[in-house]
Design goal:
It is a single chain. By secondary structure, the protein is of the alpha/beta class. It contains seven helices and seven strands; from the N terminus they run H-E-H-E-H-E-H-E-H-E-H-E-H-E. The chain has a seven-stranded mixed sheet. Helix 4 packs across helix 5. The longest helix is centred in the C-terminal third of the chain and has 15 residues. S-adenosylmethionine (SAM) binds next to helix 7.
């Protein structure tokens, strides 16, 4: 738990030793995060999840597997990115199978909006990536359009994301949707490296 929810965290307050930080927004039951943290002891992982039961479950599993490089924050994703994470502190930010809010009158509840993208830009380190997956084709299109509007000719680069690009475990919801025959859409964005 942060000592103070009303100021930005210093990098050393999340993990004391400096290693690349990955953040999973809406980490759910956390199997993706746990598998990734187990595969990368040289990196740090922070799950963000608003439901206490899920936070407890991820913490329990992480403890059982002895993962000292994983922490979970029980908080709202947008608040975390816009107000808590230190600038240029995140190497990869994952948003996987978020609620698509399909009804038009609920679109304003979607996480990916202009203010959110501006905050993602701020918290990513140069060369850092924002990785997004959804089973909802219209939300995928929405994100592409929001990013194009945010970029206005500059900004995020879109990278290829072939399945074998790097180890990327399936999430619980991905397994669920693929089990129902749905296909996931992906987007891999990068804040350009400096220089
Ligand atoms: C559809 S599930 C996806 C979980 C996981 N990413 C996966 O792919 O299996 C969405 C998760 O995000 C959490 N969530 C939804 N909105 C959130 C928010 N604004 N802040 C934090 N967590 C949120 C939900 O409680 C849920 O666990």
């Amino acid at each position: 738990m942060p000592g103070d929810y009303f100021r930005r965290l210093e990098p050393g307050e999340i993990f004391a030793d400096p290693k690349p930080l990955e953040v999973d927004l809406g980490c759910g039951d956390g199997s993706f995060l746990i598998d990734l943290a187990a595969a990368h002891p040289e990196r740090h992982f922070l799950g963000v999840e608003r439901l206490l039961g899920r936070v407890r479950k991820v913490c329990r599993l992480a403890t059982r597997r002895g993962l000292a490089n994983l922490r979970v924050l029980r908080l709202e994703s947008r608040y975390t990115v816009e107000w808590l994470l230190p600038p240029a502190s995140v190497s990869r930010l994952h948003l996987l199978c978020p609620d698509p809010w399909p009804k038009a009158r609920h679109h304003r509840r979607r996480l990916v909006q202009q203010e959110f993208l501006a905050a993602v830009w701020e918290v990513l380190e140069p060369g850092g990536e924002f990785l997004f997956k959804t089973d909802h084709e219209e939300y995928h299109e929405w994100v592409i359009e929001e990013v194009a509007r945010y970029n206005c000719g500059g900004g995020f680069e879109t990278l290829e994301w072939p399945e074998d690009a790097f180890y990327y475990p399936k999430t619980d919801f991905q397994r669920l949707w693929e089990g129902e025959g749905k296909k996931l859409q992906s987007l891999r964005l990068r804040k350009p490296p400096e220089g």
